[in-house]
Predict the 3D structure of the following.
Amino acid sequence: MNIYVGNLSFRMNDSELEKVFAEFGEVKSAKVITDRETGRSKGFGFVEMADSSAGNEAIEKLNGNEVEGRTLRVNEARPREERPRRQF
């Protein structure tokens, strides 16, 4: 199950994000999205849980909770929409 996590602290990294979700079950991957040019966090990320029931529990328990002073927005990730490539 793929989970969207929004309103992350800009200091949070992949391993810290994984730790937040690990108490609910096996985390297959955790990725904080960063700006390509600056490397700075964009304040959101994605977590892939091995089990959907663990993922649903994490969504239920973490959505609206405060982590590192920020109130998390946590929900099931929507599939990525195809966007036309930008031409320069």
Q: What stands out?
A: The chain has a mean pLDDT of 94. The helical segments are 14-22, 52-62. The beta strands are 2-6, 27-34, 41-49, 66-67, 70-71, 73-76. The radius of gyration is 14 Å.
